[in-house]
Amino acid sequence: MRERLTILAYSAGWRVVRALPERLAYLTFSALAQFAWLRQGRGVRQLEANLARVAPGASAFALKTMSRKGMHSYMRYWCDAFRMTDWTPERILGTCRVEGDGPVRESLAQGRGVVMALSHQGNWDHAGAWASLALAPVTTVAERLRPEEVYERFVDFRQQLGIEVLPLTGGGDVFGLLVRRLRSGGFVPLLADRDLTANGVPVSFFGETARMAAGPAALALVTGAALHPTSIRYVRLRAPAPARWGISITIHPEILPPEQGSRPEQVASMTQQCADALAAGIATAPQDWHMLQRVFLADLVPEAADRPSESD
Description:
This protein is of the alpha/beta class. The protein contains 12 helices and 9 strands.
């Protein structure tokens, strides 16, 4: 029954929200954000715990304000997601402000693949849609959600944006497929700021230990692709922009492999550098970091922190 309700909720989202006038749709999701924030459920409390690491000197009032803005940003992402397949290419491109894309364009022009390490910040689907139009074919990886029908809807949604989606599990040799895409000069953005499995790389993140995905660094090492941490945040736009809100994409400088050390040591070093760049981006716009789940090891019970391979 619960899975059926989940399917119905997402199906209604994609059908009903698309049919609403734009202003009404976003006002509705803003009201939902305010309601969720006032309820102070587990996700909101975890968001505040995470934001306390981003702004350790913030007062209780400042953290509450930050989390309220964070919930509004989070729900804006969902409203975007339900409506984005109806956006024109002109809207997708015209609502992106991009900084630091020069080296990425140079790499792609030379036939060199590019890996982007992203945090759950702003609207990464919008950024992927922009990249598919402005840069190169885009391939990414998505966790296989349950129920399966919801996962398939998300895959279809991203494919309509021009993004090839590979399942994290149950889809064969995903790493090998990504290697082939990158060696063909492809563009691979990957969410990297949370990996609680034993495969996650321990990093210092806002002064505490967290685990981040090893994939971006490992792919760059194996293929010679350029690795760029990338930060995304929401920004208000002015006329003649095609919408009131858009995203700002900041592509950080390339992370180069260390000249010495074993492969695991190189991956660890590059992942730490990604963590540092992503932390700087999050600190610039903490309200756009949509992390309503546990990410710092201090927040985990010991057995969860040492879980062998299950994707959280």
